[in-house]
Specification:
With 109 residues, chain A is mainly alpha-helical. Chain A has helices at residues 11-42, 46-66, 74-83, 97-107. Helices cover 68% and strands 0% of the residues of chain A. Chain A is elongated, with a radius of gyration of 16 Å.
């Protein structure tokens, strides 16, 4: 999860973005925790344990790659989070209309 | 977990060894499953999830390295399993006296 500022965005837009980003990140971790708990109930042998390990390796790589808070690509990040229902468009209220419409359009792909 | 035969060991010693080895492997996996279930109950944030992933990476590496069923080093493998209470000396009954006494001696280090 990256920190930093979004160059060219107003302070209030940055606050909205940061807040939405952190919320989606938390949700993504919450989903992962539930999946781990479910899978750990089902563990029965070495293969199932190594499969859980592989699952976690992939999820960690995906989440760490996805939550990249930099101005390049941030609209795409938000669109993909909306598409995957980790964020609703409402939670991005406060961004300017052009950014919002780009995010909304991309989230439908 | 490796397969294979122990060159120079009698068939009956090999059967004892294989049986003991498999039993210790199962116990080791059972302990790991319990640890994962405990840890997954405690998960609360991303750091705790990544810590579980790191823990699994280390355990997998350790277990895969440890359970090496080849004649070179097999007495040491058994000694370390006895030392860590994944195996009792009784479960190695059937090996010749010299092997048993080497395992017993090394397991006390």
């Amino acid at each position: 999860m990256s920190d930093g500022t979004l160059e060219g965005w107003t302070d209030s837009e940055q606050a909205v973005a940061r807040n939405a980003f952190d919320r989606a990140y938390s949700r993504s971790i919450d989903h992962l925790v539930l999946a781990i708990r479910n899978r750990s109930e089902q563990l029965s042998n070495a293969e199932s344990v190594w499969a859980l390990h592989d699952f976690l390796s992939i999820e960690r790589h995906t989440i760490e790659g996805r939550f990249d808070f930099r101005v390049e690509g941030i609209l795409f990040v938000f669109a993909s989070l909306v598409k995957d229902q980790l964020l609703s468009l409402d939670e991005l209220d406060g961004l300017d209309a052009e950014k919002l419409s780009k995010i909304a359009a991309m989230s439908r792909f």
